[in-house]
């Protein structure tokens, strides 16, 4: 049976996700609605999809989506997630940074359990969340997360308080906890929260953010170790032309997730 997908957000990643899902997964999925803050943004995206454009969650959920996919931001997902699950839809969250908030994460988990729904956290701009969960089960993981981006992909973050970053040298601009990292750089280190949650090191993992004027990629390097295993995961993704903070590959990772969910044989 073809499943109905509704999408929250009509920005850089949403556009790639919608286009590729329609192109590659039309046997299994149909995009029925896209919601954005501005109607014309949603409408621009739905034009070629034969889907409904809206600005209101009630309108989105009226389409009775099987799965709601979020590409909107951590405030948006905090506002909408519980209602989506209560509506009986499963949920895919790109703005995983929202789950660094213990209260929100617990409410999300409890509601999904109560409604017998699933919340899917995609690999996003990184990968190996499965491996990180193995570390979590084995216990006592030491995890460090390094993120390197060009200044234009970092500027505007609340931590920088309007400051410009040097354009002539590579600079470490942040070192600290996952919670401080996502609060300071909410549009840059969703990957850090994803890695820390998967490895169960939300309080212990450390994050280092580097601004590199010569970098043409968003580079994420996660190092995990315990007594029995060591892993280094480095992923370098091209910044999306429409939003250089985000790696284009993030949208593709959600298409891959949906493909996996629909397939009789799943990778894990
Ligand atoms: N998990 C991961 O690895 C990654 C996650 N992300 C996150 O994915 C999200 C989407 O990224 P982009 O598409 O690049 O962002 P974008 O800024 O290009 O697009 C965001 C869209 O969401 C809409 N939006 C914002 N608040 C809304 C609300 N309350 N209701 C409805 N629509 C709302 C905006 O109007 C815009 O259309 C961001 O939160 C970003 O931080 C990005 C890259 C990697
Ligand atoms: O897209 C990326 O490279 C990573 C990113 O913005 C995030 O994790 O928020």
Describe the structure.
The protein has 268 residues and is α/β, with parallel strands linked by helices. The protein is built from ten helices and 13 strands. The chain has two domains: 133 residues, NAD(P)-binding Rossmann-like Domain (Rossmann fold, 3-Layer(aba) Sandwich), CATH 3.40.50; 109 residues, Dihydrodipicolinate Reductase, domain 2. 36% of the residues lie in helices and 26% in strands. The strands form three sheets. A six-stranded parallel sheet has the order 3-2-1-4-5-6, with helices on both faces. A five-stranded mixed sheet has the order 8-9-7-10-11. The chain has a two-stranded antiparallel sheet with strand order 12-13. The longest helix has 14 residues. The two termini are 23 Å apart. Oxaloacetate ion (OAA) binds next to α9 and β13. Oxaloacetate ion binds next to α9 and β13.
